[in-house]
Amino acid sequence: MDWTMAPSGMAQAANVVLSALLEHGHEAYFVGGCIRDELLGRPVHDIDLTTSALPGEVMEIFPRCVPTGLAHGTITILQDGWSFEVTTYRTESGYADHRRPEHVLFVRDVNEDLRRRDFTINAMCCGLDGIRVDPYGGAEDSVRRLIRCVGDAEERFDEDALRMLRCVRFASVLDFRVAKNTWRGLLRQRDKLAHIAVERVRAELERIVLGPHPQRGLGLLARSGLLPRGKAPFPWTGSDMAAAAALTAGIGDLQDAHLRWALLLHALKRSAFEADELLRAWTFPGATRSAVAGVLRVREAWDAALAEVPPGEPGGTEALRRRWIAAVLAHGQSAAEGWLTLLAALLAALPEAAAPGLALGAPVAGAPAAQRPNAPAPDDPAAQRPNAPAPGAFAPQRPNALAPGDFAAQRPDAPDIPALRSWTAGMPLHTLAELAVTGRELATVLHKRPGPWLGELLQRLLMAAAAGDIPNDNRLLLLEAKRMDSNEQ
Ligand code: ATP
Ligand code: MG
């Protein structure tokens, strides 16, 4: 088969594997995501095969293989440095836990195998000759840009509740609509998400939020009501999510994954502490949690600065500059820059007329779509047009669409983003490691045993040097340390 969207080495190796199966008298096809992505002109990252050969027969043909999922008929074949999952045609039954089939039956007909797959666009396969087997209209749905279950949606989501999130994920990543019946089935089965492990939910959520059309997926998630029904705490109602929608309009423009999460949690009005706890409950790795919480801590420090330095106060700008520098030192340059990038995204998402003089702190209005009198029903396909703003969700239509605490509107006199960036850039140093004096030197010069005083003194010197009060010079820092120390006596 002529692959145009797969790396050529991978494509060649895949053709070798498929040919070998055919030469041994078995049926074999490329199947699933690779066919979908090839058809849509999207990069193909992995190529899966489906075959009439039983697992034992597959293993006999290929000397280099790993029985990765033998019970389900999956063997991983290693070929020319690439790996391919080859799975025996199978049907599934008895999904007692709404996740995994209890019984797997190997079958002889590829159409039977395609029937167990989740969506029509994922239920196509293709032979070596490039001819597609597509009994459920996957190619047509690709053209119509539609996610549609194979068979009865309600049943399919009941069998495996993860499919509901896969549905939202594919709609989001591909910017597709969800077929009316599929959406209706999802709404009926949404409580079943409680059966799915948090890690799996998180993995789908990551693909939505970090994908090319996060707004699309977040809008669908808000309207589906899925997440509050999962195992992990999700302390937001549909209306919180709808209100958050207006604030996250710029999310797709953020390149940094951590900033996307930070924007979402900011829009959902989480404190840095709460955000960290939530990310932990959602099983995010520590590095993600601390990066996201760091950005929100800068927000909190800056909000506190604006609250504590009254507008128009003489020397107010210098007081704010020092507060900003203190925040950069406390939370790191990358968190501080992250917050400014995020703030820029928030402001850019505002309608032009709404920018100056906003009454921030006013509640961010927005009832969920379903509660508004003229809003289309959630399963109204019109409401799911990929590029139409979702009703009441993820459309930055409201003028007061900044979160409480965003300074630009509260404080017309407050420094703008370029000013804050120039304050950061003007700092001669950004970390304690760059300070031209060590704790050991201070202890020696001041003839004192190291103790808590030392950390405090280092921080004061760091702040003085970062703010430009004294040069970052060993001799001058030691002099300043002596002065500070004698003032303490
Ligand atoms: P991607 O790799 O981009 O996530 P994919 O479609 O390849 O997309 P996989 O999870 O790799 O997704 O699954 C491969 C194929 O297996 C799918 O295309 C689909 O046919 C089938 N499949 C995967 N998960 C399910 C599921 N939960 N229910 C039914 N079929 C599934
Ligand atoms: Mg795949």
From TrEMBL:
What cofactor does this protein call for? Mg(2+)
* InterPro entries in UniProt: Bact_CCA-adding_enz_type3_sf, CCA-adding_enz_C, NT_sf, PolA_pol_head_dom, PolyA_RNA-bd
Q: Which family does it belong to?
A: Belongs to the tRNA nucleotidyltransferase/poly(A) polymerase family.
Keyword flag Cell wall biogenesis/degradation: no
Keyword Magnesium among record annotations? yes
The segment(s) forming the CCA-adding enzyme C-terminal domain are 422-478
What's one Pfam family the UniProt record gives for this protein?
A: PolyA_pol_RNAbd
Q: From start to end residue, where is composition biased (Low complexity)? A: 380-393
Which domain of life does the UniProt lineage start with?
Answer: Bacteria
Which parts of the sequence are annotated with region: Disordered? 366-419
Question: Poly A polymerase head domain: from which residue to which, for each copy?
Answer: 28-148
Domain tRNA nucleotidyltransferase/poly(A) polymerase RNA and SrmB- binding, residue spans: 175-227
Q: What is this protein called?
A: CCA tRNA nucleotidyltransferase
Q: Which UniProt keywords apply?
A: Magnesium, Metal-binding, Nucleotide-binding, Nucleotidyltransferase, RNA-binding, Transferase, tRNA processing
